[in-house]
Specification:
With about 400 residues, this protein is α/β, with parallel strands linked by helices. About 35% of the residues lie in helices and about 15% in strands. The termini are far apart.
Length: about 400
């Protein structure tokens, strides 16, 4: 029989958060091993429940959820997103500018599919949430990674961005708050990014899914609030701030310079219609979530569970010789660095698999986030304090053995 090959469009597509190391972890679980999973921000499995009022509203409305909705989504949740954009000081968003999706992930792919032709380029941060890079590639475009500088708290390198703009550049992706670094960009940096987009007529894709998961009293500014002469596509959803990953309830708001984007918006409308609609039960959760009690504020308060676990994980990681880490100001992740002098890692996927096999701890290697060197990894700090302490102790033990094996201890 002739082998059946996957599409060539997938040749440059990679999503290592659910990649080969996870497959090894599943195999080990099937063999009876207990794995401590620090690889993915899936809040429910760590005891972070969605607000009860969201759950109850979905249950009460389930008998009305069997039919298709408008291709962009139901009116009431879209209107609540409009109100949310007003709270975030984003001007000029109407109900027609809001698209509901099966999580922000579906809308990321939709936004790229509607925009890109073969050879078009999109500026994507390094490190990034890898779905952005994958979506650009799958849409026929070319992801061009701009550097975020660890020495400056993982801020985007504006000069590096400028150097990488070509006549083929169509858009820039800004992930703020950032996954995987936990960085939160100040207004000054956002204004510089907007100015670059303005000068080069780039679309700004603003991924703001963690905009309420903020620590130490920090505040978040939406990029789209800073200009009305640039086209912004702002993405958000319930997965993280409302601990509702499985409900797949996300949204995308188009704002700013829409007059010259009518053809692109028509493309978005076509793709929204082709998928018929987002799942209806998830749509019923949006209005209640945005208008209800914001329990995320309790979790990120000085004595909140997320803050305590962030502080613990950061302290235990940075106590390990040769491990440094910029303390995250937002989101659910850390992106620690391993000193190459102490940890001469050639292949960080192999490194992650060795840690998994030896210590039963699952992480994601840094190159899985399109980082440029095999010297970082990402961990989530979602497990409870006891499990987190256990996990960090296992990582410390593994790294101690690694140094001894390589004669760098």
């Amino acid at each position: 029989m002739r082998p059946i090959q996957k599409s060539k469009k997938l040749a440059e597509v990679c999503y290592d958060i659910r990649g080969p190391v996870l497959e090894k972890a599943r195999q080990m679980e099937d063999e009876g091993h207990r794995i401590i999973k620090l690889n993915i921000g899936n809040l429910a499995v760590f005891g972070f429940d969605p607000p009860d009022e969201i759950v109850q509203d979905m249950i009460r409305n389930l008998h009305n959820a069997a039919g298709y909705t408008d291709s962009k989504g139901m009116f009431a949740p879209r209107k609540s997103v409009v109100h949310y954009t007003q709270e975030k000081k984003i001007a000029g968003v109407t109900v027609d500018d809001v698209y509901l999706g099966n999580g922000a992930s579906e809308l990321i792919v939709m936004g790229m599919n509607a925009l890109l032709n073969s050879g078009d380029e999109v500026l994507v941060p390094a490190p990034d949430y890898p779905l952005w890079t994958a979506a650009v590639s799958l849409s026929g475009g070319r992801p061009v990674h701009y550097v975020c500088d660890e020495a400056s708290g993982w801020m985007p390198d504006i000069e590096d961005i400028k150097k990488k703009i070509t006549p083929h550049t169509k858009a820039i992706v800004v992930i703020n708050p950032n996954n995987p670094t936990g960085a939160l960009y100040p207004v000054e940096i956002l204004q510089q990014l907007v100015e670059v987009a303005r000068q080069h007529q780039l679309i700004v894709f603003a991924d703001e899914i963690y905009d309420k998961t903020l620590y130490d009293g920090e505040t978040h500014t939406s990029m789209a609030s800073l200009a009305d002469d640039v086209l912004f596509i702002t993405l958000n959803g319930l997965s993280k701030n409302y601990r509702s990953c499985g409900y797949r309830a996300g949204w995308m708001a188009v704002s700013g310079e829409k007059r010259h984007a009518r053809d692109y918006i028509e493309g978005l409308n076509m793709l929204a219609s082709m998928r018929l609609c987002a799942n209806t039960p998830g749509q019923f959760a949006i209005q209640t979530a945005l208008g209800g009690y914001q329990s995320i504020n309790d979790l990120v308060a000085p004595n909140g569970r997320l803050t305590k676990q962030r502080d613990l994980a950061h302290r235990l990681l940075t106590e390990i010789p040769g491990v440094t880490c910029v303390k995250p100001k937002a989101a659910l992740y850390m992106f620690p660095r391993l000193d190459p002098k102490l940890y001469p890692i050639a292949d960080d996927q192999d490194f992650a698999q060795e840690l998994l096999v030896e210590e039963k701890v699952l992480i994601v290697q840094g190159t899985g986030f399109n980082w440029i060197a095999p010297d970082h990894f990402r961990v989530v700090f979602l497990p409870n304090v006891d499990d987190l302490t256990d996990a960090m102790g296992r990582i410390a033990r593994f790294l101690n053995g690694y140094r001894k094996r390589h004669g760098t201890a």
